Amino acid sequence: MTNESGKVYLVGAGPGDPSLITLRGFRLLQRADVVFYDYLVDPVVLNHAGLLGENLGQRDLICLGRHGEGRILTQEEINQQMVAAASAGKMVVRLKGGDPAIFGRTVEEIAALEQAGLSYEVVPGVTSGLAAGSYSGIPLTHRDVASCVALVTGQEREGKAGNAIDLSSLAKFPGTLVFYMGVTTAGDWSRRLIDHGKAESTPAAVVRHCSFADQQVLRTTLGELGTFLSKHKLRPPAIIIVGDVVAAASGNPWFSIAQQQLDRPLFGKTVLVTRPKHQASDLTVKLHEKGAIVSCQPAIQIEPPSEWGLVDQAIENLASFDWLVFSSANGVKYFFDRMLATGRDLRHLAGCQFATIGPATAAALKEYCLHADLQPSEYRAEALAQELAPLSKGKRVLLLRASRGREVLAELLTAAGTDVSQVVVYQSNNVLEPSNHILNNLRAGKIDWITVTSSAIARSLVQMFGDELRKAKLAAISPLTAEVLSEAGYPAGVVAGEYTTDGLLLAIVENETAP
């Protein structure tokens, strides 16, 4: 675990875009034992919590409720769970959208922590109200028309003691009004502002899904605001900006759809990444950089073997093997972690050469300060066997593999005169049920692409989603993966030319930008 146990960090995740979290927040997520997160936090941010792969199984990611998917936890329940986790000696991150101190009920959570005698830290985030100005091109302050800003809630707590929002004073406020959580009540508070003297013609803007690729910026006036929201059927989350600064906005904001589509070719496209949790981050970051809205739904989960006996036996006899052959990065990790855990080190590999199926596997090998002696020019088992066979004829080869997969590599090497041994160093199991959120989005046609990065993932996706897969385009990492999809009746929309995640990303981009 960590050396900062028994402490709670109240962290702001920012307005939406997962790259807008602070460096401090990012580093805390890397070390956390438990993460309690709001449903509005982008799932890509949560991938940061799995960056330390060796601790992945020890981490708890707990969603505090999503509208339409089960019950949303009460504030009292959230407080109790945070206190219990920290009291058990765990390092806890309470991840909130925006900034914890802006309409985040942080005061109540701090009170619970102080009452329990627990240490805590508040880590600021970019609040949505300020980000809405930057991302919409609307300057919340302007030297000619607004020298101050008021952040206002559109929803007061029921039974609140003391005075409610003084809309008569806000109507006279000589600056910009920024309303949070104000969509459903806009008809009421806009009318009351007008009744207290605010001009009906005051410009207003609604910024919905701020900083996301599907961000909307819609302009109206204070007098038309309630009717405007009803007409366009706009729903939260959204920030409403009221004031003369709306009229002073740039006519060509940097985050406009047209500009982003030029700079980021997947802007506005939703891509579902289906790799295991601990392997999803690299691809999600690359997709995000291209402008995609990224969702994650692992199709398989990677776990240690059910027992280590055969692996330990192979490690004991490493000196008898001439080649160690790895067909995945997972195989590299599980084998070497087990070798080190049994008290051995790299000196036990002095007589071995290493073969990897592709660059990702070779990169995993480099993390243990080892270089591949052989990597085929084409990243598939047949090519690896063809290039390794002349070098391994009459020698002993150990294949470190998953619990399932093709036998072609072992069969071809054996046929070429190689003495082949195989050992399962990790389990690959299907994820049987997708999240309701992902399934509903797929059914509604809200997912444009599904990435398929192995044959095992292809089979699991068919089992998990069935005919719902036809509602999105499938991107296969190799012809073999595409063949598995095709045989199941779900042909791939694109197939990577280079059998890597970079090749897969390029295939999607080329498809989207083709004339």
Explain this structure to me?
This is uroporphyrinogen-III C-methyltransferase. Its EC number is 2.1.1.107. Belongs to the precorrin methyltransferase family. One of its GO terms (biological process) is methylation. With 515 residues, the protein is an alpha/beta fold. The chain has 4 domains: 7-125, Cobalt-precorrin-4 Transmethylase, domain 1, CATH 3.40.1010; 129-246, Methyltransferase, Cobalt-precorrin-4 Transmethylase, Domain 2 (2-Layer Sandwich); 261-299 and 431-513, Rossmann fold; 305-428, Rossmann fold (3-Layer(aba) Sandwich), CATH 3.40.50. It has helices at 23-31, 43-47, 75-87, 106-115, 128-136, 167-171, 186-195, 225-232, 257-263, 281-289, 309-316, 329-341, 359-366, 381-392, 408-415, 436-443, 455-465, 479-487, 501-513; strands spanning 7-12, 34-37, 60-63, 91-96, 119-123, 149-153, 176-180, 203-208, 216-221, 238-242, 270-273, 293-296, 300-303, 323-326, 353-356, 396-402, 419-430, 449-452, 473-476, 494-495. The protein has a 5-stranded parallel β-sheet with strand order 3-2-4-1-5, sandwiched between helices. Strands 6-7-10-8-9 form a 5-stranded mixed β-sheet, covered by helices on one side. A 5-stranded parallel β-sheet has the order 12-11-18-19-20, with helices on both faces. The two termini are 52 Å apart. Residues 51-57 have low confidence and may be disordered.
